[in-house]
Structures are given as C-alpha cells and as structure tokens.
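In the design runs reported in the main text, the only information available to the sequence generator was the tokenized backbone. The following block is the verbatim input for one such run; it is reproduced so that readers can re-run the procedure and compare outputs position by position.
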C-alpha cells in the first residue's frame, strides 16, 4: 500500500542544513496497522507529512502509494490522491463555528454529489464512529474523545484507503485513548483500512499495531512485527521505550541495597525474559518440580501482544547449587533469556 524508498528531507534553519529524515525505507502492506514510534523530535511528523506531500521530500526520494509515485503526480492527480489518504491529528483541527454534521460534510463539498446524498453519507459516518446523537452539537460541546471521532468521520468522508494518524490519542485521557484505538481497529477491519499511526507512547503500539518502526534522529533504527520488537529489541531507542514501561527494572534499584534482598547461600537472583512466541508451559512451576527448588517472585510483567505473551519475571531461585544450574540450563533451552543478577 505504501512503499517508501531512500526518503530524505532536510530543512534550512538559517544557514544550517538540518537533516530531518535520513534514508528512510519502509514497506507498509494493505490493512497493516503500522506504528511509527519515537521520542519528540525524531522526525515522525515530518515522515507522515511526506506521505501525502504536505512536506516535499528531497530529490531522489520515492513514495509509492497504492501503485502511484506521489512525486511524479501533477497538481490535479495529487489532489485526487490526497482525498484517498485521510489524516487525523492530536488537536483534531475541527471547525469550531460549525456543528458536527457540517464538519463531516466539509470534505464532501464541491464533489458534485447531491446535498441529500452528502448528508446521508455524513450521517452514516457519524453512526460508524458512534456519534449519531451529536450531529447537531457544536464542537465545543464535545469531549476530546468525541472530537476525535468527528475528525475520524471527516477523514473517512472520501472513502480513503489509508488513514494517517499523527499522535491522534496524545491529547486524550486513558479511557478515551483506549476507545479511539479500539475504533481504529474496528475501522481497519470493517473498511480494510491501512492505518499509519504515529505515537510517542508504547502502550498505543501494543494495543493495536501489527508492525512497528522505531525512529531516532531522523532514521528508522528498527522495524519488525510488534511482538518481535518487544521480545528482542535491538535499537537503543526501542530498549529505552520498553524499559520505561516495564517494571522488571525496578530490581536494579534494589540491587544497590542488596542486603534488603537477604539472599541465602546458593540463592541466585535472576531476571527471566520470555522471547519465544509459542511458549505456553508453566515454566516456573515446572522448574520447581523438576529440580526441587523454589522461586520467590519479586516482580513480574507479562503482556499479551498479538495474542502471545511477552515480558518476564524477576525472582530468587533457592535450592541446591547443581539443581539451580540445571534449572537455568532448562530455561535457556526453552529460549528464555536468563540474567543472573546476584548470587547469595
Ligand atoms: N518546517 C520545519 N523547519 C525546520 N525544521 C523543522 C521543520 N519541521 C520539523 N523540523 C525539525 O525536524 C525535526 C523533526 O521534527 P518532527 O518531525 O516534528 O518530529 P516528531 O514528530 O518526531 O516530534 C525537529 O528537530 C524539528 O525541529
Ligand atoms: Mg510530531
């Protein structure tokens, strides 16, 4: 659906040339919910703005959207193409002086469609986003989540194949965020919509994306299935995002006060990370039985991503030294990453 090759974009800030995007290559398939995550200033918004040429990339870049090279379209073709690419933003960008229905009708004006048909289309869209009852309300009478629903309905008015979302939930509270993301997921399935979702929040990617690209300093530093990035992050940026959201690193603070852990002779403090998609056996229970040891769990953080568990456990293994060695070998053979943090 979208193929980005050798995408570069520089800005001039005074006499200084600043590279906002550097040699980006991405392949987004039909019906992907493709996350692009990065810290502020990474270049995410610039990238997504290039996807409909709101921002013109440098010479030599290529952006193919649904079989058309955007950079070789003329004005008229580009206008037509843009109408097939919906866009929603953090701050909704609705017209405050118009009611909800008029906001959704706006992109349908001048399309040569009869008024009655336009109204029907807009009402259908409002129903699709769960906002039929607010058609006659003004924008300022809506909550943030409702405003974003209006913006989504408006973005879908021309039946786009692609929806670009730039921090679409960043101004919303956690409940509204959850609802908007679930709505996007429903639309992705119902309308076979390809979604590109820009965010600085890992939770957003976890909730709905199947693929994710991690950006840092204008570059894509990692790109894979969401599960794989969580289970085996390779870039500094991805590791930093994951560490911030996991509680498995709380143990690092405790290690500085290791006397509080009160480890006995032979005890081993371990951090286990589950990286295998297929894992379903009760590992900790199994090693306790098989090797006659105890694992005292201090922290655990396990989540389901695309229906597979990922995360880990921190705890103290107590038992005979050779049994602990065997248990650790057993875990490693099951593709569990085992870090021995401290020995008693
Ligand atoms: N129009 C512009 N002129 C100059 N610099 C820009 C412009 N737009 C973005 N930048 C710079 O490009 C970098 C990436 O910005 P942006 O794409 O907005 O990042 P993000 O969305 O990841 O926070 C920032 O350093 C920003 O200052
Ligand atoms: Mg941005």
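Verbatim output:
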């Amino acid at each position: 659906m979208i193929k980005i090759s050798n995408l570069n974009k520089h800005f001039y800030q005074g006499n200084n040339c600043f590279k906002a995007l550097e040699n980006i290559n991405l392949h987004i398939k039909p019906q992907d919910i493709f996350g692009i995550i990065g810290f502020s200033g990474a270049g995410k918004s610039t990238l997504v703005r290039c996807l409909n040429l709101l921002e013109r990339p440098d010479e030599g870049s290529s952006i193919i959207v649904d079989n058309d090279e955007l950079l070789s379209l003329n004005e008229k073709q580009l206008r037509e193409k843009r109408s097939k690419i919906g866009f929603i933003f953090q701050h909704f960008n609705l017209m405050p002086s118009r009611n909800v229905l008029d906001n959704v009708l706006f992109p349908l004006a001048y399309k040569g469609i009869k008024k009655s048909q336009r109204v029907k289309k807009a009402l259908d869209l409002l129903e699709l986003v769960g906002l039929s009852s607010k058609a006659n309300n003004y924008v300022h009478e809506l909550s943030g989540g409702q405003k974003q629903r209006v913006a989504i309905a408006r973005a879908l008015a021309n039946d786009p194949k692609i929806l670009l979302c730039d921090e679409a939930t960043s101004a919303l509270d956690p409940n509204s965020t959850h609802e908007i993301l679930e709505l996007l997921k429903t639309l992705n399935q119902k309308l076979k919509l390809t979604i590109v979702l820009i965010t600085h929040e890992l939770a957003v990617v976890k909730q709905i994306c199947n693929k994710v690209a991690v950006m840092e300093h204008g570059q894509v530093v990692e790109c894979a299935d969401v599960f794989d990035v969580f289970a085996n992050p390779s870039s500094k940026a991805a590791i930093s995002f994951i560490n911030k959201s996991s509680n498995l690193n709380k143990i690092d603070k405790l290690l500085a006060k290791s006397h509080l852990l009160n480890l006995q002779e032979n005890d081993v403090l371990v951090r286990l990370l589950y990286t295998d998609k297929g894992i379903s056996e009760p590992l900790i229970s199994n090693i306790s039985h098989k090797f006659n040891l105890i694992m005292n769990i201090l922290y655990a953080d396990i989540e389901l991503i695309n229906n597979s568990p990922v995360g880990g456990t921190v705890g103290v293994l107590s038992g005979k030294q050779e049994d602990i060695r065997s248990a650790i070998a057993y875990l490693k053979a099951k593709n569990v990453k085992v870090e021995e943090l401290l020995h008693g």
